[in-house]
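Weekly puzzle thread! Below is a chain. First person to post its structure in token form gets bragging rights.
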Amino acid sequence: MRAVWMGILLGAVAVCGCSRSSNAVRATDSALASAVQTQPSAASGSISATGQSVGFDRNDYPGDDSMAAMRKDFAFTGYWLTTPPGDDTNTWTGKRELLKQQGWGFLVLANGKLEAEILKAKKAGTSPTDLGRKDAAGAIAAAKSEEFPAHTIVFLDQEEGGRLTDVQAAYLLAWTEAVATSDFRPGVYASGQRVQDDPGVWIDTVQDIRDRIKKGGLHEVAIFDAQDECSPAPGCTLQAKPLSEAGEPDLVAWQYSQSPRRPSITKSCAKTYATDGNCYAPGFPKVFLDMNVANSPDPSHGR
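Winning reply:
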């Protein structure tokens, strides 16, 4: 994805990341020295000291040669089925087989609608539920076109955080239920950062989604947690913490670093980022990204 989720909505805070080339400042020479805290890597350099797998996501495909070289440090990559947030085209299309041959595992991603987009569609006559089902059908068709195997987890990119509004929830749960009744499995990429919902009441989007699923007796949804606050997040480093330290139980993956970093919540790990605020792939000064950790080198089971 692209790492830029900021701003506050009433009852919801936009927190999810998807690294965007359009917003990024190119790293200067002085930035490169601190672009990523890393350690000498052996053949298994994509495995963290905790035995978990380290991966990344970004909106723009880095290029075939770059992906081959980056494989020494990363086990899996985000893979967009749809046009990423803020983009006009999807540069990942058609790359699955090559990346599989290079040894990559996958976090399969599909762009979700923002609340304003859902409301606009509703005003035009399309309900949030119908819109969610329509977008799910598009993601399912793309997953089949890219030849992902049955039971691959497809993660809906929920960019706005905090407690979901009614229209957001109707859209999201219609999407996950539609995917659950297909050959694929539903997942959601959402914020695990806690925000104040009411006086004395704190909520995060992951918790809210899980509560709604349980209350509605709906299908299980895999969670890709976005939580880049330091701590628990370690910052822009390949030395990832255990998945269990993200603050949410039963996660498939944890996005612990975003590009650009959010200054208000990353002060204690600011030095791990480049001086322009981005997180860069080791040895690739133009490839800014978001870093993730998972228990599996193929979190979506997309190989």
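Puzzle host: Confirmed. Bonus trivia for everyone else. The mean pLDDT is 85.
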